[in-house]
Each structure stands twice: as structure tokens, then as C-alpha cells.
Design a protein that fits this description.
The structure holds 2 protein chains of 2 kinds.
Chain A lengths: L11 H20 L8 H27 L3 H8 L8 H10 L13 H10 L19 H10 L3 H11 L3 H6 L6 H13 L7 H20 L1 H7 L3 H9 L5 H18 L4 H14 L10 H21 L7 E6 L2 E7 H12 L2 H22 L10 H13 L3 H21 L11 H21 L13 H19 L7 H16 L4 H16 L2 H11 L4 H4 L8
Antiparallel strand pairs in A: 1-2
Chain B lengths: L23 H8 L4 H23 L3 H7 L8 H45 L1
Helix pairs in contact in B: 2-4
The chains are: A mainly alpha, B mainly alpha.
């Protein structure tokens, strides 16, 4: 039965006529008399007929009359012969009426759920909902949406979702966030690994519920992202729609935290839970949806993680949360997490892009105080972590290319942004969008077929170059350095050559080296640049730089 | 002591006592108080009753109920169950009506035989 079939309602005239006929039949049967002993069997048949009409027919008809046919309506959906009655639909169309308002208001919960379960939701060729084919009966939808505010009903709905995920997911848009959270958690903690149609339907339902929850209330989704089982499902259950998962995770982990800074600790909880699973569950990587979602959320957490990285190994990384310092994970766990993300090309590109954008942000935030104030070493520490996590040349090259292009393009995407502005919500969101768009664009350009275009360097070297270029840009604009106009012009020209390199990474690298030579001939700039690059952690990045290449 | 009920019920009446006229042997033993023609008349009354009853069963309003209870009126498990049982009821009623007509035919034959006996005796 499709939703359109549910537009059928009882014909009150026909029901009334039927009821009168049943009464007449009962009376007529009651009036039948035959005392002949040979009619004993016939009398029994009459009694049985009379009993059926009284006990079943009249009882049901009375029930329908009393309750606006709701119980029988609900039961109707369970009818195995669920084809819509064309004539009844015609009858309704002719009269331009639908089911009476509040039709389901008095229905039992179980009846509503049965009705929902009985509806066939057509799937398209990809096995997804064919929304256009579902003409939703608003009365039913409203009633279920209203009742789902009750945790008990929401629990029943979640139970039902385990076997009828598509039915529940089709109503996801009207379900309250609390119910969606319950259903999402239930679906993601009870998964089947059998590759069959019911499992596929369940996965599609789970994907839809997760997507809807992320759209409606990403904070609620964020709250369940600390559950090990749910994270395991998101990262390893291949039947989930990876695109939906990626968007939902990014939205929950990033947008929520940016929009509501009070939820930052909850985001850290989720990152901590994911990091704890990295050495075991995600040792061989995770599915693209979760990986890209986490990677896209990194810009929200790098400003906290960067300063917190101090010692390698099993040492705890303590970040500054909303409520003060707290342990996020050990260095090894974070390294494993980045390693797991790095197994997915797109996630790796986004990680490197985020890192480059973070580096540029920090350099411009600290500005002319780069040589003395802390800050530039933070992205350097993250870059070191990323390099440690990538144990494969291909991945290192991919990350380096992504970081390089991100550093090149970020400037144009954030053109006009003041150098010393603290990262605010808008800016971080823009960084995310930029990183993601660059990341997506790089996925193709960094495939093995374009290996020649990739620099044979590590991500740390690219971050070192990024610090160099951005520091020069700061120096060129800084009034404190009191540069001679000629020197300032020469420096500006060198930087312009770097900018003009475009996506040609080799040209960019040579242009950066040329700019360094220019800077060395301007004592104030050279001192500024050297002081900045000699800060703890930054200088070590130079080891991976091979300017002779 | 209660009278033994013959197989198939009491062939000649609805009273609690078995009819003594049904078989010649009984008639000889107990001396049936009814005349042969009176028996035949009684049998024919029963034939009429049975056939009228059969006719009523065939045309009970229950058939109208089934006709009016299609999908256009209502649908669902419970309505389907009601209709299913009703159709069994109607089939039982029709079978009972056929049986009544068969019994009526047998009684009618007996009445004819009694009439023939009466004619011979006279």
C-alpha cells in the first residue's frame, strides 16, 4: 500500500447501510423457525450465522461508529490485500474529501505503528526513498510526530525501526529531535552484517534518520557520537550512505561547536571517543563518511589541539576546554586517529588543507609579534603529528600537495581578512568551506595518474613554506619593521611571484625560495623571519625541506 | 426408561417419543393409532415445512450483508475475518437447505407409499 492508498476512508453511508442490513439479517435469522427434527443441522447453521453477525459484525460496526472508524482504519492497513481500492479513492476524489481531521487521534499506539509498518515505501533504483512517490497522509504523520514527543512512544518507534527502518525514516522530518536521537542510536547499535535486502533497507533508514537528525538538531547527534558502538557502526558499517554520514558528522562535530561554543567540550568528548577507538577499531582505517566528516571538523579543534601537543608517545594531550584543561587523548591515539583518517584520500586532503589553513590563520593572528609571541609553533606541532601518522610515501605526497595548494588558495579565499583578527565563527566556517572545497578539488588532482604534479616532500615542509610565505606577507605589511619603500616593494614583488605560481607546485616552491633570498637582503625582514622560524618546533620542520629538489 | 433415538433422528415427528408408525414391524407390534392417510398427510406437512425452511435459508438477508460489505465499504483484517466467517455461514446454510430438500423428498416418497398402501387397503 502506498500513502496515496491511505487517503481512502470509510464511507459513512455505506457503513450505516451495512449496519442496518446486519441488524435486519440478525432479526430475520432469529425469526426463522422449523421444529422438524430433520432441520436440526440447518438450525445449527442459522445459529452460527446469527452468532457471527452479532458477535463480530455488529461489534465491529459499533466500534467503527463509536470511534470514527479509527481502529478498523488502522487494522485496514494490516490487510494482506493492501492494494488501494480504486473505487474508494474515486469516491473520495469525487467528494474532494480526505480522512477526517484527527482521524488517528484516538487510535492505539500499536495500531498506529502497525499502520506505519504496513506501508510500502517505494525505493528508487539505488535503493533510496522515492520521495515523489510518497503522498504523505498528513493526519497520520502529524499524529505520529505528536506522539513521538513521548519517550515511551519514541522507544516503541525505535524498536519498530529495527525491522521497519524505511517506514520510520520516511517520517523522520516530522519526528521530534529526541525521538530521532533515540531511533538513530537504536539503529546504529543494532546492525546486521548480512548483505541482504532487509539490511540494505535498514541501512537506508539509518542513513536517513542520521541525516535528518544532523539537519534538525546536530547537537543531539553530537551527544551520541561519544558512544563506542555508534562510532564503530559509523566507521565500519559499509551499508550506510557515506555522503550522508560525512555531512552529518561534519555538521555535528564542527558547525554545532562553532555555532554554540558551550558545546565545545561535548565535541571534545566525541573526538576523544573517536581517538580512543583509533588504535583498535579503526586500526585499518575507517569508512569515508566518518573519515571525511571528522577531517572536515578539524578546523574547529586544531586551535585547541595545536598548543596541547607537547610530548610524543603515550603522554596525554591536555587541551583547554570550556571548563578548563582536560585530557583529550594520548599523543599516540591522536597519531593513530590521523593515520586512520589518512587512509582515506579525501579525508587526508581535508586534514592537510585544514592544517595549512590553520597555519595561515595563526601566522596572521600573531602578526608582527610572530618572532616573540607564542603561536607559530602550534601548527608546526600538528604538522609533526600528521607526518608521524602518515607511514606511506603516497599519503605523504598527497598531504603535501593538499597543504601546498591550500596554502596557495587560502590566501585568495580569505582575501581582505584582517591579519590580527581572532578566529571567530564566521571565519572558521569559511576556513572549513575553503578546506573542504579545496579538498574535494584535490581528490582528482592528486590521484596517482598526476603523480608528476606532486612535490616529493612531506607535509611538514609545506607547512614550513607556508609559515615562511605568510610571515613575509606579515613583514611586508608590518609598520613596526619600518621597511624602506624599495625593500617593501621588492618583498611585495617576490610574494606576488609566489602568488602567481598558481597550482604549479614546483613553480611555487622555487618562488618561495626566491622570496627568501629577497628577504635575506632586507635585514629587518630577515631577522623577523629567522626569529619566527627558529621558534621551538618550527625549526624542526626544516629538516624535511629539500630546496635542492 | 427413555426411548432409543433411531439413527438420523425421529423420522416421523418432533415429539420426544419415537413414532411407532415408521416401520411395518413397529406398526404391527404397537398398533399405530394414526391411519395410513393421516400419516401421509402429516408427512406432507413436514415436507412443506422443510422445503419452506430451505427456501428461507437460501434467501436469508445474510447474503445481502456479504454483498454490502465489499472493499468499497470497509477493508482490513477484522472486516476480512467477518466476511470470511460469514461466507462459511452462508455455505453452511445453503448446504443445510439442500439437505432439507433431500430429506423432504424422502418424506414425500414415504407419503406417496403410504397413500398407495391406503389405496390398496381400501
Amino acid at each position: 500500500m502506498t500513502w496515496s492508498a491511505l487517503l481512502a476512508g470509510y464511507d459513512p453511508v455505506a457503513i450505516s447501510r451495512l449496519r442496518r442490513t446486519v441488524f435486519s439479517a440478525v432479526d430475520a435469522l432469529h425469526a426463522l423457525r422449523c421444529d422438524d427434527p430433520l432441520a436440526e443441522h440447518a438450525r445449527s447453521a442459522v445459529r452460527l450465522t446469527q452468532q457471527n453477525l452479532q458477535d463480530h459484525w455488529l461489534a465491529l460496526l459499533e466500534e467503527i461508529m463509536r470511534s470514527d472508524a479509527m481502529i478498523a482504519w488502522t487494522a485496514a492497513a494490516n490487510d494482506p490485500a493492501r492494494a488501494a481500492s480504486a473505487s474508494l479513492q474515486r469516491w473520495i476524489a469525487d467528494r474532494a474529501i480526505g480522512p477526517p481531521a484527527g482521524l488517528f487521534a484516538l487510535a492505539e499506539d500499536a495500531d498506529l505503528l502497525s499502520l506505519l509498518a504496513a506501508i510500502d515505501f517505494p525505493l528508487d533504483s539505488q535503493g533510496r526513498f522515492d520521495a515523489a512517490a510518497i503522498a504523505v497522509d498528513q493526519a497520520l504523520v502529524d499524529e505520529i510526530g505528536f506522539r513521538a514527543t513521548d519517550p515511551r512512544f519514541a522507544g516503541e518507534l525505535a524498536d519498530m525501526a529495527l525491522t521497519n527502518a524505511t517506514s520510520v525514516a520516511a517520517l523522520a522530518a516530522v519526528l521530534p529531535d529526541t525521538a530521532l536521537t533515540t531511533i538513530a542510536a537504536r539503529l546504529l547499535t543494532n546492525v546486521s552484517w548480512v548483505d541482504d535486502a532487509p539490511t540494505a533497507a535498514s541501512a537506508h533508514g539509518a542513513s536517513a534518520v542520521v541525516g535528518q537528525l544532523a539537519a534538525d538538531d546536530p547537537a543531539s547527534l553530537l551527544s551520541v557520537l561519544t558512544d563506542r558502538n555508534i562510532l564503530t557502526t559509523l566507521g565500519t558499517w559499509p551499508m550506510l550512505d557515506q555522503e550522508i554520514v560525512a555531512g552529518a558528522i561534519g555538521r555535528a562535530l564542527h558547525d554545532t561547536v562553532i555555532a554554540e561554543p558551550g558545546l565545545f567540550d561535548r565535541g571534545l568528548d566525541a573526538i576523544a571517543a573517536i581517538a580512543a577507538l583509533a588504535p583498535t577499531t579503526f586500526d585499518d582505517g575507517m569508512l569515508p563518511g566518518l573519515a571525511t566528516g571528522i577531517a572536515a571538523a578539524l578546523p574547529a579543534y586544531l586551535p585547541a589541539i595545536g598548543p596541547a601537543i607537547r610530548n610524543e608517545g603515550p603522554e596525554p594531550v591536555r587541551v583547554l576546554g570550556t571548563d578548563g584543561p582536560r585530557t583529550l587523548a594520548t599523543y599516540d591515539e591522536l597519531r593513530e586517529l590521523v593515520g586512520a583518517l589518512g587512509r582515506d584520500d579525501e579525508a587526508l586532503v581535508i586534514v592537510a588543507t585544514s592544517l595549512a589553513a590553520y597555519t595561515t590563520d595563526v601566522v596572521h593572528e600573531v602578526g608582527p609579534d610572530l618572532a616573540t609571541a607564542p603561536g607559530v609553533e602550534y601548527p608546526a606541532q600538528v604538522a609533526d603529528l600528521v607526518r608521524d601518522a602518515l607511514d606511506d610515501e603516497h599519503r605523504e605526497a598527497t598531504a603535501a600537495a593538499a597543504a601546498s595548494i591550500a596554502a596557495q588558495q587560502r590566501r585568495s579565499s580569505l582575501l581582505g581578512t584582517a591579519a590580527n583578527v581572532f578566529i571567530d565563527a564566521t571565519r572558521v566556517s569559511r576556513v572549513l568551506r575553503t578546506a573542504t572545497s579545496i579538498g574535494l578539488g584535490l581528490t582528482e588532482s592528486t590521484t596517482p595518474s598526476s603523480a608528476a604534479a606532486r612535490p616529493d616532500r612531506s607535509v611538514t615542509a609545506e607547512i614550513y613554506d607556508t609559515i615562511t610565505v605568510e610571515a613575509l606577507r606579515v613583514a611586508a605589511a608590518a609598520e613596526q619593521l619600518e621597511l624602506d619603500p624599495t625593500d617593501r616593494e621588492a618583498l611585495g614583488a617576490a610574494i606576488a611571484l609566489v602568488d602567481a605560481a598558481g597550482d604549479d607546485l614546483g613553480v611555487r616552491r622555487r618562488a618561495i625560495i626566491d622570496a627568501e633570498y629577497v628577504a635575506l637582503h632586507v635585514p629587518a625582514v630577515a631577522a623577523f623571519l629567522n626569529a619566527a622560524r627558529q621558534r621551538s618546533g618550527v625549526d624542526e620542520l626544516r629538516e624535511d625541506r629539500r630546496p635542492d629538489d | 426408561m427413555r426411548a432409543r433415538v433411531p439413527p438420523g433422528g425421529f423420522p416421523l415427528g418432533g415429539s420426544a417419543r419415537p413414532c411407532r408408525c415408521v416401520r411395518a414391524r413397529d406398526r404391527q407390534l404397537w398398533r399405530c393409532p394414526l391411519s395410513t392417510s393421516a400419516h401421509a398427510t402429516r408427512l406432507r406437512q413436514r415436507v412443506d415445512d422443510l422445503r419452506r425452511f430451505a427456501e428461507q435459508l437460501d434467501h436469508t438477508p445474510a447474503a445481502d450483508v456479504d454483498r454490502l460489505a465489499g472493499d468499497d465499504t470497509w477493508r482490513g483484517r477484522r472486516p476480512a475475518l467477518c466476511r470470511f466467517v460469514l461466507r462459511i455461514n452462508l455455505a453452511q446454510l445453503h448446504a443445510a437447505a439442500d439437505d432439507l430438500r433431500w430429506q423432504a423428498l424422502l418424506l414425500e416418497q414415504q407419503a406417496d407409499q403410504l397413500d398407495a398402501l391406503a389405496a390398496l387397503a381400501s
